[in-house]
Design brief:
Elements lengths: L4 H8 L12 E7 L3 H10 L3 E8 L24 H10 L3 H7 L13 E5 L2 E2 L16 H13 L4 E14 L2 E9 L6 E4 L2 E4 L7 H7 L7 E4 L3 E9 L9 E6 L8 E8 L3 E9 L8 H11 L2 H9 L2 E10 L2 E4 L11 E3 L5 E2 L7 H16 L11 H22 L13 H15 L3 H11 L11 H13 L14
Parallel strand pairs: 1-2, 1-8, 2-5, 3-11, 8-16
Antiparallel strand pairs: 3-4, 5-6, 6-7, 9-15, 10-13, 10-14, 11-12, 12-13, 15-17
Helix pairs in contact: 2-5, 2-9, 3-9, 7-8, 9-10, 11-12, 11-13
Amino acid sequence: MPLSPSRVFSQLTTAERPAQTSVVMRRAVVLGGSIAGLMAARVLSDHAEEVLIVERDPSDVGGGPRPGVPQGSQVHALLPAGQVQLERWFPGFAEEALALGAPQPPSDGGARAKIFVNGELGLPPAPSGAGPALITTRPFLEALVRRRTLAVDNITMVYGRADGLVFADGRVTGARYVPEGGAEPVVESADLVVDAMGRSSRLSDWLADNGWPRPPMRRMPIKLNYATALFRRDETVSDAWVAVYHTMAGKGRTARIGGINSVEGDRWIMLVAGYDEDRPSRDVADFVTRCREHYPQMFGDIAERGEMLGDVVTYHQADSRRRDFDKLDRLPAGLVAAGDAVASFNPVYGQGMTSATLHASCLSAYLRSGPRPHEQPARAYFEQVRVIVDAAWQISTSADIELPHVDGPYPPGYRVTKWFGDLLFRTSLTDPVLNDRLGRVTTMLEHPATLSRPGTLLRALRLGLLRPRPAAPATVRAPR
């Protein structure tokens, strides 16, 4: 009997390292050296004699945002489920990050984590059990993952532009890339190739050019616009540690997102975001005005009184998208995809890096599923990846589908799901138990299906519908 998606999700989010692994291939090639590619390489190092990462961005980028990650300067969040996976594959990761300058969470960090929904201050997030929260910039986190990955003896990285795949006898047998500074492509043989080339992956074209079907793609046109700035952290300006502000579209409300993170280097990174025609600009005055007029006081205090470090940086993402490889009727052996090359979501929900770590968990399960699983099409891998993608997609699109400019597609049972989701969300703002259960789903520690358990349903109904309303004040009649 097949396992339920919730059960599969639970297995994939485990913190336990595999008890046994075996080398089943000579060489694996990973196209892309971001979080998804690095995590895939780390998993593959247990199963391949040699792992080669081909990374597009030049080797002299240093510690700043990479050109291949246009949103690299923006606020990023590693959800607790992602932190669990980093610790699983790189033991001591959190401790090392803190030693290298990641902010040490304050003893009252929970109380100083502010979450505002539709202008209302909710309960602070419950402890996740994933260890001290890692709140850093994307370049800091990725640099440490890269360093730990390349410290593994059988993993190497070369720099160049991926240029295509080599096909033979119903499988992928290698990859082509043009080395940094070169002009002619180099062919690297491989028993397994991983596409970790991100949203702009050309894998669909390469498959079609070689007679294979393209994976179907689904999009939701979110039209997200956001702006980010760094500030020197100064408690005389604000005691903010972490803050999230979310106004949902509704009567009399404009959908907006805001965020403040305390990051390495004694800095704040602060984001303001809007949708469709609501476009934050690079203009400092516009940034300050938005922070003061549309967000809680701490945003305005930091923007007006804090020391801005560098420029305001903007980013636009037209859509959330997913490629459903599991639906292909034909798929070459020796090929998998991971990270944003499979699915990328509205980034304000922080699911991207965490999903990439969980795709690595799928890869580990797949490579341990038989003697030489890579010699057959990776359907089992893509079926498990779908469980991760479905969970993240459900969380992000259930909110985004309410945006005025988004017109579906609406999932089956949408009205009932929306009604209960709104009820659960509203009651979680004041009830610690529901706050914890919802938080474990939104941070990808648990599958969304866990929210439909009877105890959760009844608690939300009791608190949201059956709680006695305050008695109306007595009517005072005017004397006759």
